[in-house]
UniProtKB/TrEMBL annotation:
KW Nucleotide-binding (keyword) present: no
Molecular function as annotated in GO: glycerol-3-phosphate dehydrogenase (quinone) activity
Record-listed E.C. numbers: 1.1.5.3
Protein name (record): Glycerol-3-phosphate dehydrogenase
Matches recorded under Pfam families: DAO, DAO_C
Domain of life according to the entry: Eukaryota
Gene Ontology terms: cellular component: mitochondrion
InterPro entries membership: DAO_C, DAO_C_sf, FAD-dep_OxRdtase, FAD/NAD-bd_sf, G3P_DH_FAD-dep
Gene Ontology biological-process annotations: glycerol-3-phosphate metabolic process
Involved pathway(s): Polyol metabolism; glycerol degradation via glycerol kinase pathway; glycerone phosphate from sn-glycerol 3-phosphate (anaerobic route): step 1/1
């Protein structure tokens, strides 16, 4: 019988429990497999390769050829299935250990849960509260570990991540004391990984910092707020950055490539590879590997069943709905988090990419490719934030609403999704197939490290060096500075083609320059050069900084293979403003058609698929609501 062990933060950095060829790794957050050291010549070699300003990722056709070339006589060391944060993290970790790695993703990098997150990098204030009140040392060490990883994610992708102050309103003096003490403990647990110290603000100071905050809520007067810091990220761009960094490190990464069956050794029944279908061309091919890592998120059970039809489900899917509101709902640079609403759930409002994201729900759901938010979930979020704001909360203000499926690993003792632990699990219940699931965005790097450790053990692999990802910056991060955007503003112009065909120069304004710098890091100048030299300097949508040049750049250098890839994952237009994304579609498809040489039939297909995709984002204009109270 296979062991199923949740990753508890107990003492042992890599303790393997073997039973019937199955492994579970127990992690000690205070000790790392790479000892958090320098990494030596191997690390420097990868840093120079990834940080080279002239470096380009291999073309998609080259990556596919590398996978096809993995034969029974010359297999990959590891084949990763799933291109989310964890899967791409595994590919990067394994490639930088000197292993031969391939990755296939059915849709696009970050097309699932990884692009539909809360956008927070956090240690888990709620988990700390549970640790204290339940005297749970395991939970406490998980918070320690998450806070360490939070700091590293921000340092390894500084252009895509930053510290965000979050305000907790207090309507009773007891709450002031309780939250102040709790958040000071959070600071203490963070230790040297602290972003900034938490502090108390009076009611007057709080309203100055957060003008839309209600002075009266729940029939009580605001006594003040406690502000603490967590991290915030652009999740799908971070995920795409991971995929591109893995490709630069030598991994053969391929999006829109689906595993349709596993290849097995006839004698031992061990999995030796996979039959893959390129969903763009319909072409099928076999690729062989010593170990397959299942990092398919909510879909990992379907892969396990592909290997063994009797596999018992591991995933308890939970739906997390978020809505996007105009920027005036929250000030730039300050979030609002209510730890306990009337029904005991957490609700938040966070500034994100010039808009306000609010959420979230946590309810059982079914696993689908395109989850949609229910109207009652959207109304729940509007209801919850309404109590804490002095601005009228209206359903018509919802610019976009989406649902993401959290792949929670089931605990048979849990009664609801709130009490299921978010620990990650590494599990090999079939020879040659290592499954990694659970966890959260913040800890993707250490999850990947554990998965690669398990794969090395399973396949008896010989890595060239230890894990290097702790101190490895992602593509665009090396040498980036918050003031980098000034170079773009001063040295580039946006050449725009008018409807009459005339080319006119436009200023590279601060908003566009900042956006490019934060989205592409040190590679932003490449995008700016396309805007200037190829007359692709126009904005794609009114009121948003996304440029035509980005479509061409992403098609050439970020494996952007469809209109949906661009509006949802390369830019975030679908998430920020569904209707604006719809209006930008014709021009996006026009540019992609030139880059990928699409015929009229493919362009028409792209329009239909993108419109269908956008309909799952319940903005006020494409949602059916007639009797909601937020008119």
């Amino acid at each position: 019988m296979a062991h199923f062990i949740r990753l508890r933060a107990t003492k042992a950095a890599a303790v393997a429990v073997a039973s019937g060829g199955t492994y579970a790794f127990l992690r000690d957050p205070s000790v790392s497999a790479n000892d958090r050291g320098g990494g030596g010549p191997a690390l420097e070699s990868f840093r120079s390769k990834i940080g080279d300003p002239y470096t380009v990722v291999p073309q998609r056709a080259v990556q596919e050829s590398a996978l096809i070339g993995a034969s029974p006589a010359n297999p990959l060391d590891i084949l990763v299935v799933g291109g989310g944060a964890t899967g791409c993290g595994v590919a990067l970790d394994a490639a930088t250990r000197g292993l031969r790695v391939g990755l296939v993703e059915r849709e696009d990098f970050s097309s699932g849960t990884s692009s539909r997150s809360t956008k927070l990098l956090h240690g888990g204030v709620r988990y700390l509260e549970k640790a204290v009140f339940n005297f749970d040392y395991g939970q406490l060490k998980l918070v320690f570990h998450a806070l360490e990883e939070r700091k590293q994610v921000i340092e390894n992708a500084p252009h895509l991540c930053h510290a965000l102050p979050c305000m907790t309103p207090c309507f009773e003096w007891f709450e002031v004391v309780y939250f102040w003490m709790g958040l000071k403990l959070y600071d203490l647990v963070a230790g040297p990984r602290l972003l900034h110290l938490s502090r108390y603000y009076s009611a007057q100071e709080s309203v100055e910092l957060f003008p839309t905050l209600a002075r009266k809520g729940r029939d009580k007067t605001l006594k003040g707020t406690v502000v603490y810091y967590d991290g915030q990220m652009n999740d799908s761009r971070l995920n795409v950055g991971l995929a591109c960094t893995a490709a630069l490190a030598g991994a053969a990464v391929l999006n829109h490539a689906e595993v349709i069956s596993f290849l097995k050794d006839e004698g031992s029944e061990r999995i030796t590879g996979a039959r893959v279908r390129d969903n763009l061309t319909g072409k099928e091919f076999d690729t062989y590997a010593k170990v397959v890592v299942n990092a398919a998120g909510p879909f990992c059970d379907s892969l396990r069943k592909m290997a063994n039809n009797d596999a018992k489900p591991m995933i308890c899917p939970s739906s997390g709905v978020h809505i996007v509101l105009p920027d005036y709902y929250s000030p730039e640079g300050m979030g609002l988090i209510v730890p306990k609403t009337k029904d005991g759930r957490v609700v938040f409002m966070l500034p994100w990419l010039g808009r306000t994201v609010a959420g979230t729900t946590d309810s059982n759901t079914n696993i689908t490719m395109l989850p949609e938010p229910h109207e009652d979930e959207i109304q729940f979020i509007l209801d919850a934030i309404c109590d804490y704001l002095n601005v009228k909360v209206r359903r018509v203000d919802v610019l976009s609403a989406w649902s993401g499926i959290r792949p929670l690993a089931t605990d048979p003792r849990a009664k609801n999704t709130e009490s299921i632990s978010r620990d990650h699990v590494v599990y090999e219940d079939y020879p040659g197939l290592v499954t990694i699931t659970g966890g959260k965005w913040t800890t993707y790097r250490s999850m990947a490290e554990d998965a690669v450790d398990a794969a090395i053990k399973s396949g008896k692999l010989s890595p060239g060096n230890k894990c290097l990802t702790y101190n490895l910056r992602l593509v665009g991060g090396e040498g980036w500075d918050p003031a980098s955007f000034t170079v773009l503003a001063q040295q580039y112009v946006r050449m725009k083609k008018t409807y009459g065909g005339k080319v006119v120069p436009g200023v590279m304004d601060t908003a566009a320059a900042k956006h490019l710098s934060h989205a592409y890091g040190t590679l932003a100048e490449r995008v700016a050069a396309i805007a200037q030299n190829e007359n692709l300097g126009k904005r794609l949508a009114h009121g948003y900084p996304f440029l035509e040049a980005e479509v061409a750049y992403c098609a050439r250098h970020e494996y952007c293979e469809s209109a949906i890839d661009f509006i949802a994952r390369r830019s975030r237009l679908a998430f920020l403003d569904t209707d604006a994304a719809g209006r930008a579609l014709p021009r996006i498809i026009q540019i992609l058609a030139v880059e990928h040489k699409w015929d009229k039939s493919r362009q028409k297909q792209e329009v239909q698929m993108a419109i269908q995709f956008l309909e799952t984002f319940k903005s006020s204009k494409n949602a059916q609501f007639h009797d909601g109270k937020h008119k």
